[in-house]
Write a structure and sequence with these properties.
- 56% of the residues lie in helices and 0% in strands.
- The protein has 10 helices and no strands.
- By secondary structure, it is mainly alpha-helical.
């Protein structure tokens, strides 16, 4: 970390102590960078390329990069950071490694080395899967940040959002349960509805509570539940008008 030239006229004991603290932290981070071994960091599984698996895989990959220090001792997650998602107030509260992640410049020799390294990690996790095609435009440049942006567009853009919404609505409409079997239980039926509604909520198209109940009850085809279903569906609070 570079420091401005020291002005001896205003270099008080307090400023001296603060400078030494900053230098000690910087030295500690660089030492940590040298000690960090990528072999000690567990790599995520390869991504399947399915939209439903993206959110969990994204979190794993971000955590993976956060555990690996780059050329200047900054966690590699700075390469894929989203500057637009952080407000000035949130930035002002940042300390330690998080502050360094958002302070690291997205240019220069260190950045170029780290950016290429992130691309190679993406390449190893996407090759052979459905998402491999999103890297083709960056094979020659090895641009990890741009490749990451392409993945975000593919899995979180309007097309992906609309596909996820359609899939969730289909799951709610078509899923049924009649009796427990080896591969399909009532708990799994409940979980499928919950996951579908969570997806709709995430994309700001939630279903009202009465519709949730009606759709859930409609998919139960077990005669022993018939009286309960009838009682619930006759509840005036659940009527669509």
């Amino acid at each position: 970390m570079a420091h401005d030239n020291i002005n001896l006229a205003i270099f008080t004991n307090e400023i001296c102590d603060a400078t030494l603290d900053e230098m000690a932290k910087s030295s500690s981070f660089r030492g940590e960078s040298k000690r960090t071994s990528q072999k000690d960091v567990k790599q995520p599984e390869k991504i399947s390329g399915r939209v439903k698996s993206w959110k969990a895989w994204k979190a794993e990959f971000e955590s993976f990069l956060a555990q690996i220090n780059g050329a200047d001792g900054v966690p590699l997650s700075y390469i894929i950071r989203d500057d637009d998602e952080i407000t000035e107030d949130e930035y002002a509260l940042m300390e330690g490694q998080m502050r360094r992640i958002y302070d690291a410049p997205l240019q220069g020799d260190y950045y170029e080395r780290d950016n290429f390294q992130v691309f190679q990690k993406l390449r190893s996790l996407l090759t052979g899967g459905l998402a491999e095609t999103y890297l083709s435009d960056y094979e020659k440049t090895g641009d990890g940040r741009e490749a990451w942006q392409a993945l975000l567009t593919a899995f979180e853009g309007d097309d992906a959002k609309n596909a996820a919404i359609t899939s969730a609505r289909n799951d709610i409409r078509t899923s049924t349960w009649e009796r427990n079997s080896k591969n399909w239980t009532f708990d799994q039926y409940c979980l499928k509805h919950i996951r579908a509604h969570n997806i709709l909520k995430r994309y700001d198209v939630p279903v009202d509570e009465s519709t949730k109940v009606r759709e859930f009850i409609r998919g139960i085809h077990n005669s022993s539940f018939q009286s309960i279903k009838t009682t619930i569906l006759l509840n005036p609070e659940l009527k669509p008008w």
